[in-house]
UniProtKB/TrEMBL annotation:
It comes from Kribbella speibonae. The lineage of its organism: Bacteria, Bacillati, Actinomycetota, Actinomycetes, Propionibacteriales. The chain crosses the membrane at residues 12-32, 72-91, 103-123, 231-256. Signal peptide: none annotated. Pfam families: BPD_transp_1. Keywords: Cell membrane, Membrane, Transmembrane, Transmembrane helix, Transport. Its main location: membrane. This is Carbohydrate ABC transporter permease. CDD domains: TM_PBP2. The keyword Magnesium does not apply. Belongs to the binding-protein-dependent transport system permease family. InterPro entries: MetI-like, MetI-like_sf. It is a multi-pass membrane protein. It is found in: Cell membrane. The keyword Transport applies.
Amino acid sequence: MRLVSKTSQYVVMSLFAIVFLAPLVWMISASLRPEAKVLSVPPKFLPTDAHWDNYRQVFELIPVFLWNSVKLAGLNVIGILIVASMAGYAFARLRFAGRDAAFIVLLATSIIPGIAYLIPQYIVFRQIGWVDTQYPLWVPKVLTPVFATFLMRQSFLTVPQELEDAGKIDGASTFGIYWRIMLPQTKPALAAIGVFTFLESWNDLFGPLIYINSENLQTLPVALAQFQGEYFTQISLLMCGATVSVVPVIAVFLFAQRYFIQGITMTGMKG
């Protein structure tokens, strides 16, 4: 009976895996076909003759866009990890007047939709000369990591108090305790925040369209949108670009998968 149950579970999971992988396989297959054969009926998941020239055309167009996406994702990930970990440690471990009230106010800001302050924010950025620069795409996110701060606070709360007390006995400073003792204990939460931040920055299309006018400052999602016109879409080239954009996402997730899953499961253990 147990064997039947296990077999049924594997069969069901395999079916789900096939359903979720089918679009990815079709995307890669379509990227290797001539434009005239992309929408063939019935759809084919394996190309009979690989058309590698599609990738050559795409890589002639996207190097600058790809670099901009990598740079912005790196700035967002590094900046948010630093700011959120320091803020989360302060809210979890340091005692100061109004700490809990400040944390509640911080969480309350997350219910405000971004579209509500888009126009005032744009006006401010225009007045300080940030329009048509990449600053609006990473500075506001780094300075206001509400969800990441919450995640880090919950993670710091799960670290035993004895570790912090041992650091104080050894004469470590507050920053030394945070950096050398506490931060290494929160690797799962850091990995989860890093993956979430990377995905958000990497897939951001709205921000570059709003704040950037110069083509040399645009990002990869904007480059992919250029393959779509009002009356005609270059599907094979669009699938090439989508394949290129998906590879870093898969690589980042596989690299941080173990810590990512731990971070999601442990951050709600203690409030």
